[in-house]
Specification:
Layout: H1 3-9, H2 18-21, E1 37-40, E2 43-47, H3 60-73, H4 89-101, E3 106-110, H5 113-124, E4 130-134, H6 139-147, E5 152-155, H7 160-177, E6 181-186, H8 198-203, E7 211-215, H9 230-234, E8 242-246, E9 256-260, H10 262-271, H11 273-276, H12 283-298, H13 300-319, E10 332-337, H14 340-352, E11 356-357, E12 359-361, E13 370-375, H15 383-401
Parallel strand pairs: 2-11, 4-5, 4-6, 6-7, 7-8
Antiparallel strand pairs: 1-2, 3-9, 8-9, 10-13, 12-13
Helix pairs in contact: 3-12, 4-12, 5-6, 13-15, 14-15
């Protein structure tokens, strides 16, 4: 079969849903300023799907800094990869500020979070080493594992007994190969909102010899006394050997970073192929990230507002009989029972008739018969937004229970 003919069939992965889902369930267009109420399909909807946790995307100081930096530097400077011609004092300044904030000696900027994590894994380990990882790790971690030519062991999500067992297996392997063990987990698991049990994981260091890499994309800026991440929430940041976070969530930007000891960061700088062979972050993004980090550190009221809304939303949903799983973070899942068709109709009703926009997750990401609606509260949402949403969720839950969504199509007013 011709390669393009095979690809055009498009029956694998999410592509099989493209005819009815493209532009609605997938690749939806949210228009207008980045704020709780945006426009979708010509209607204003209350949006709970943006990772703008502490409201920095349209903060006036951020917008001003972004605009001034773009005017002064343009989007091209610096040209080239960091190692060749794209290195600046400002890049170094941002790296040191990030390292200081998360309690590490050194940090290294990454162009993107996804490719950054993938490349970190590829750089750290060789065929003699073993990776042990949580079963619910993000796709960027799983894709990094695919590049690993050595052994890897997966442990059941946050199951410390099973982790102990996998570390025992890993220890036997490296005793033969002479390699080391890298344990990878997330600080905040972005789908269900629960936390990686870092406090329990670090205790296992007393029993086994391994290093910990934490993907804290959703924890950076939201978790801990000062927003410095899930490790600080548990008081074990010193035991986290490599700390990774992205700017795409609480920092409302592009890029990311990894922080560790000076020696390990130096090793990454000289060996990470995704950074050696990719253009440096443009100066406006670097300058903008410094302003975002400054606001994260100096305006704790932003994070306080976020957690106020988080608690109102999560407690209100639970009081309304919703199952929100075991979330301990702003990530708020609502777990319902139903088929894919029921889930699709439910979301159409929620968006078109109830004016609430959130993400939907169905099989194969969650077990068949499960519908997960995922809400991301931000510091910009209001108490009225929360009340509005809870009433909408009460309605769709009742309709789902009484079979309203079993028919093929939900009616709504076209714009």
């Amino acid at each position: 079969m011709d390669l393009f003919e095979k690809l055009s069939i498009n029956t694998t992965s999410l592509g099989k849903y493209h005819e009815f889902a493209d532009g609605y369930m997938m690749f939806p267009k949210l228009e207008g300023e980045i704020e709780p109420w945006m426009k979708f399909h010509g209607k204003k909807v209350l949006t709970w799907s943006l990772n703008n946790y502490i409201g920095l995307a349209n903060h006036p100081e951020v917008r001003k800094t972004d605009a001034e930096a773009a005017k002064e530097w343009g989007l091209a400077y610096p040209m080239g990869a960091r190692m060749m011609s794209g290195h600046t004092t400002q890049h170094e300044e941002l790296e040191q500020q990030l390292a200081d904030f998360v309690g590490k000696e050194s940090a290294y900027l990454l162009n993107y979070g996804y490719q950054g994590m993938l490349s970190i894994i590829d750089t750290l380990v060789d065929r003699k080493d073993v990776i042990v990882y949580d079963s619910e790790s993000h796709a960027c971690i799983l894709d990094g594992l695919r590049l690993h030519m050595g052994k890897r062991f997966v442990y059941k999500h946050n199951d410390m007994d099973n982790l102990d067992k996998q570390l025992k297996h890993a220890s036997r392997v490296v005793s033969r190969t002479g390699g080391g063990i890298l344990l990878i987990t997330e600080g905040v698991f972005g789908m269900a909102g629960d936390l990686g049990h870092l406090h329990n994981i670090v205790e296992l260091k007393k029993k086994y010899d391994f290093r910990i890499l934490v993907d804290d994309a959703h924890g950076f800026g939201t978790m801990g006394p000062e927003g410095a991440g899930t490790g600080t929430h548990y008081g074990v940041q010193d035991e986290v050997d490599l700390y990774f976070a992205t700017f795409a969530k609480a920092m409302a930007g592009i890029g990311g970073f990894v922080a560790s000891t000076k020696e390990i960061v130096r090793y990454l700088r000289f060996n990470m192929r995704s950074q050696i062979f990719a253009k440096s972050l443009p100066m406006p993004m670097v300058i903008g990230a410094m302003k975002r980090l400054e606001l994260l550190k100096t305006k704790p009221e932003l994070r306080k507002n976020l957690w106020h809304i988080v608690k109102l939303l999560q407690e209100g949903l639970k009081d309304a009989g919703m199952n929100i799983g075991s979330t301990e973070s702003p990530v708020t899942p609502v777990i319902l029972e139903g088929t894919e068709i029921q889930g699709a109709n439910l979301v159409v009703d929620l968006r078109e008739n109830h004016k609430v926009f959130c993400s939907i997750v169905i099989y194969p990401v969650v077990p068949r018969g499960t519908i997960m609606l995922r809400l991301i509260p931000t510091a910009l949402h209001t108490e009225e937004d929360v009340k509005f949403t809870i009433e909408a969720f009460k309605s769709i839950k009742d309709k789902l229970t009484f079979g309203k969504y079993s028919k093929e199509k939900i009616e709504y007013d076209q714009v």
